Amino acid sequence: MRWLVGWSSTASGPVPPEGRAIQPVGAQLLWSDPDPLWAVGDWRPDEVRVVQADPFTRLAVFGCCGASDEELRVGLFAARGGALRHLTAWPGSYTAVAQVGRRVTIAGDLAGARPVFHTEWAGGTAYATAALPLADLIEAQLDVGHLGALLACPDSPEAMGAGTPYMGVRRVPPGHALILRDGARDVTGYEPTESLAVAAPQLEHGEAVEGVRDALVEAVRARLTAPRHAPETDGLDPGPVPGMGPAERRAARGAPAPGIGADLSGGSASATLALLAAGLPGMPGTLLGHGTEAGERLLAVTFNDLVTAGGARTREAELERAGAIAANPRLHHVVVAAGEEALPYAALDTGALTDEPGPSLVVAERHRRRLAAGSADHFVGHGARQVLDAHPARLADLLLDRRRRHLLRPATALAKADGPSAQSFFVPFTVYRAARRLARTPYRDGVEEAAARLLERRFADDGVTGGPGAVSASLAALAWCRPGPAARWLTGEALAEVSVRLEEAAMRPVLLRRPGERRAGAALARYAADHRILEQAAEVRSQRLHAPFLDNQVVRACRALPEALRVQPGARAAVLRAVLAGAGIRELPPGWGATSHAAHTAAVRTGVRTWVGDLVSLFDAPLLADAGLVEARVVRKALRAAAQGERLPLDGLAELVSTEVWLRRLLARRGTCWTGTAAPRQRAVAGGVVPRPSL
């Protein structure tokens, strides 16, 4: 786990003694008092860059940034004049910290994969890119209300606000920057705002796709031109093992291969990144001379689930497409086969403590086994669906712009998604009415409606014609705010508290945006936060995961795509196919761009059925019940029902299980993130789970 931390103190009086007597464990000091900044963790030398114009004007960039030192200086001068957006316009994924005199600016990213947190401390403000170190710093208790909101409405920022699971630790929203002046803080957005009454001018189809292509190519090139690193190994290769080659022995030790690699699942996103990375020229070899032979190839990793029965046809088709793509002479294909030990919900009793809870904790072991066979720098296609696909609520945006005819194709595709039925003929009309209702519903009324639904326990698939399915999910998503899949298992008190949060949010003034734009941004932020948790939970030593689809420039380019294009069926595959064609790659296997929902759902159901005993035992005496969020008996009953094949929202069960697992790991941790004579005497959440106050 890697993070940066610093603070800004008040201008009056001497420097607080805490600033001299406390520092993070294992930290690298970048600049000192009165506003110090540290880099903590296993940062590579090229991942921490500092440029300085004078002793009082400097910029630190953490992560993979494709800008040159001169470009960083230009960005620093722009930030000195207040143009914060320049700090987020370079290729790559990074966090920028600019100091101009006593003013410190920390820019978060657009997606939320690199968040910024802050808290009051020592008369000023401390900030970090991880919430747990700040919780340790102020000895924070657990915010049970935030956990309840995270379970009840995970995709609704109205319920969670700027909070975190730790009391007193706040989050900077995506697309915003934290500005500190003499300890005082201000959170401001750096993206231009659009009018709600007048639609912004949209780019032409071809120009928008070219923008996506250029952004993706630059994102991949930023990783390829960075110095490459060989993984650190604690022990020597044990030598020949029957049935295992060097790559298999290395993966068994948990060490990635040197050089560049990529996922190759057969899907459009991972295949696009793998083909781009294989086709673009980069800096060969590593700092230690590994991988410098002629004809160096990109390591492409495909995961093969051997025990999931359902979705077998989809999985076989994915493997065939991956094999056809890997025929490229610049790709070296590795297939990682796994059994029950890599199913979802496996190995929940082991694993690293993450900064926050997230549904990806239940599949961390599955991903870790795949990533261990990858490279030191590994591309993943995470986030492509969230930045390229249209959220169902965007249909209401089309109605606001009087583009009714563009609703025909997506509504017709939804009618065919769940198969032929007596209700299929009415689906387009039902979708149109739901989109029109959302377009005519004010934001405040929509949030208050969600609060009422929580109190009345009316959830997404209750009373929806046809039961759970694509049509039901799309109709439920046509709302300003809605309960999440885990809300049905929360207690009445927990739902009532979240309902109060929503009603308070409805009364506050907000920057109004179109419903589709707002819902799509919230869904992207939720996914990016969970991707960050996955990086921490499935982390392989000396490996870096690269998700270019979550980069600032790629997100901006995808947002410029016309809404009429995004809502069409197969839009993501069409855009990525055009991206590859623009890069000179036109021969793709049949079926390229097909979705993999069936295989994923089948794997999750198999995991629940296989590990149901461990899951039920996990909720014999759950910490969530001690906090008043759930009743253990109700959750155990739901787990047994899901294992027997009953159609329940599996995403909701994953959120409950992952939150319980995270709480147990948090309360079992030892030590603190800080050292020194004034270091906190206790770790975060020192008192355990705080009982929920009565309403």
Walkthrough of the structure:
The chain is an alpha+beta fold and 695 residues long. It contains 26 helices and 19 strands. The strands form 4 sheets. The protein has a 6-stranded antiparallel β-sheet with strand order 3-4-1-10-9-11, with helices on one face. A 6-stranded antiparallel β-sheet has the order 5-6-7-8-12-13. It has a 5-stranded parallel β-sheet with strand order 16-15-14-17-18, sandwiched between helices. Helix 6 packs across helix 21 (571-582), helix 12 (394-400) runs antiparallel to helix 18 (515-537) and helix 13 packs across helix 14. The longest helix is centred in the last third of the chain and has 23 residues, at 515-537. The radius of gyration is 25 Å and the shape is globular.
Q: What value does the average pLDDT take?
A: 87
By DSSP (H or I, 4+ residues per run), the number of helices equals 26
End-to-end separation: 38 Å
Radius of gyration: 25 Å
Give descriptors for this structure.
alpha+beta, six-stranded antiparallel β-sheet
Short structural description:
The protein has 695 residues and is an alpha+beta fold.
